[in-house]
């Protein structure tokens, strides 16, 4: 698991550096040098990876336009969007931040889908190894955690903590999977588990299998 996480984070930097180098060729005046660009993107990635409110029901990406960092992705709580923007403010060399992270609407139905999809994916004997809890949502929340989450307004307000290789994003019944797994079979299995979640209108499986040719994201 640790090796997989390191590989994913490395792939993010390498992929973004490639995109950055293309940008340098097109915009030679208002960009960083290659080494400076790599430093900036590495710092941004570390800041985003360490966000307090970034959890399994969120997904963040970033890109570069000139010397502007463009933040994208989905935040299940407004706090995450605000925290992400603040976290990279002050990084040397960054001229501005374009925060395009979409804050997902509050929805009891979406919360039910998140909880059910989490259980279906992470209690699978094949997929349970992809999270630190290796079990059900109730186990992930700990003693009394499920009741506390419901009293607070849903699982969105009290998501499972810890590293999760598969992120579950729900927007008005539309379920999206992001992250990285070891192989194509696990990617397909995650999609099958998620597709059987009650209440799901549609599914996009954007999980990356290691060593595949698909573009990596954080």
Description:
A hairpin with a 2-residue loop joins strand 1 and strand 2 (68-75). The protein is built from 7 helices and 7 strands. The protein has 2 domains: 2-103, no CATH class; 108-209, no CATH class. Strands 1, 2, 3 and 4 form a 4-stranded mixed beta sheet that branches. The chain has a 3-stranded mixed beta sheet with strand order 5-6-7. Helix 1 (2-26) packs across helix 2. The two termini are 16 Å apart. It has 218 residues and is α/β, with parallel strands linked by helices. The protein has helices spanning 2-26, 34-49, 78-88, 108-122, 137-141, 145-151, 184-195, and strands at residues 59-65, 68-75, 96-99, 102-103, 166-171, 174-181, 202-209.
Report the mean per-residue pLDDT as an integer: 82
DSSP helical segment count: 7
User: Could you say how many structural domains there are in total?
Assistant: 2
Shape: globular
Secondary-structure element string: HHEEHEEHHHEEHE
Contiguous low-pLDDT stretches (5 residues minimum) are 6-25, 147-153
Let me know the largest β-sheet: 4 strands, mixed
Radius of gyration: 18 Å
Task: State the separation between the terminal residues, measured CA to CA.
Answer: 16 Å
